[in-house]
Each structure stands twice: as structure tokens, then as C-alpha cells.
Amino acid sequence: MKIPCEIEQVVQLKTKGKVTFSFDKQYAGHFTNFTDKPLSIEILVNAQEQIKRLAMISPDQRKKIYALFNDIAAYTGDTQNNIKELLKELYCAEREIAGFSLSDCSSELASDYIEWLIDWCFRHGVPLNEHPKDYFDDIERYVATCIDNRFCVVCGRAGEIHHIDTIGMGRDRTKVDDNKHSKTCLCREHHTEAHNLGWQTFKQKYHL
Questions:
Q1: Which of 55, 70, 88 is the last residue of a domain?
Q2: How far apart (Å, rounded) are the C-alpha atoms in residues 83 and 67?
Q3: What is the distance between the alpha carbons of residues 139 and 70, in angstroms, rounded to a whole number?
Q4: Burial of 144 (0-12, 13-18, 19+ CB in 10 A)
Q5: E strands of the chain, at which residues?
Q6: Taken in order 131, 133, 137, 142, is the CA torsion positive or negative?
Q7: Helix (H/G/I), strand (E/B), else coil: 20
């Protein structure tokens, strides 16, 4: 018997892997007799459909976007739906693109939109329930966003630039072009800690 299904989640455990499938409820009865028995299955993957699915917005991305809508709505006192429509319009205008749907847009667009929303929250002082770092796929882009908005990469509080590559003793930091220097943004507390621990230890402690 062939049952169409989708892979919802793949988890790598220490000694084995765990795969979660989802299928239409009409097929659930076929598995009731095997709940306590070994079951052998053959997985046939439709490559074209899988490629198409992987290129689309993921459930996790959609969840993150709506979590951000909720945080913004709670901060502004507006409804989630109004926030959703307003910020989609602002994003499309800034990126100079047509409208999009959060049900079937590309994963690439969804990732960019999440980062844009985080940046918008930083600029407008919106407190987030989740750590901003957890919304980013790329830690370097998260760090860049924190630098641009002067927020600490560790705690999200107002921060200042921390130069990982030292500029040098006796040089005026306000007059040195540091574009080629490695740097991040830290609040005063974490800036002091970074100097006390040393960058490598500090980086490992906070998984930066």
C-alpha cells in the first residue's frame, strides 16, 4: 500500500535518527495494528516535489514571522493582522518587489523578511520574547544587524563597537577606518567581560 506523506522533521540523536511523517487522517487506521509491532516501510521520494517544497517557506520560518508580528502588535497595541499588512507593504516598497504570500513564498524571501523584521524591531525599540539571534540562519548577518543598530549581540541591550582586531595603542578610534577590522557590538557589561576573558573564551561562552 502506498500512502502519500510529507517529512515534517528530521532529528539526529546520539545513536540513531528520528523522522516524523505527516499524512492525511484517512490513512491513520492502517497503522493502528502496528503500534506495538515492528513495521517495515519503503520511502519513495518525488525529487521534483521535494526540491520545490524545500525552496518554499518552511513552517519554522512562518512561525518565526508570526511570532514577530505578535511581539510588534503587543508593543504597538495594534492587531496582528494590521501589523502583518503594514509591514509587508513597507518591506515590498523598500525591496521594490511585488506583494507576496506567507503561505507559498520562497524560503529565501522568508529569510530576508525575518531579518528585515528584526532590523525594524531594533530600530523601533520593540522588545522581543525570543532572543534575536534565534531568528537568523546566518550568525554573521545577525552580528552585522547588531552592529548597524548598536545592539549587544549577547543580550540585545544598547551597545557599543568592540574591536576584535585591535586598532592599536595611541590611535584615535574616531578617525580610523575600521571597515577591514573584525568587530562586533556589545553592551558595557559584556564589553568589559570580553576584555577580561579574551575574545576566544568569550566567543565560545556565548556561541558567537
A1: 55
A2: 12
A3: 24
A4: middle
A5: 5-12, 17-23, 160-163, 183-186
A6: positive
A7: strand
Q: How many domains does the chain have?
A: 2
Q: Which residues have C-beta within 8 Å of that of residue 144, sequence separation ≥ 6?
A: none
- 128, amino acid identity: L
Give pTM, 2 decimals. 0.66
**Residue where the block lists cell 522588545:** 127
Domain edge (last residue) among 55, 77, 97: 55
For the record, the C-alpha cell of 100 comes out as: 507576496
Angle at 161 between CA 156 and CA 165, to 5 degrees: 125
How many CB atoms are located within 10 Å of the residue 19 CB? 10
- Has residue 17 been placed in a domain? yes
Task: Residue 162: give the domain boundaries.
Answer: 146-208
pLDDT digit string (tens) for 163-202? 886 655 444 545 545 556 789 999 999 999 999 999 999 9
CB 145 within 8 Å of CB 117? no
Q: Any idea what DSSP says for residue 151?
A: B
Q: Is residue 135 part of a domain?
A: no
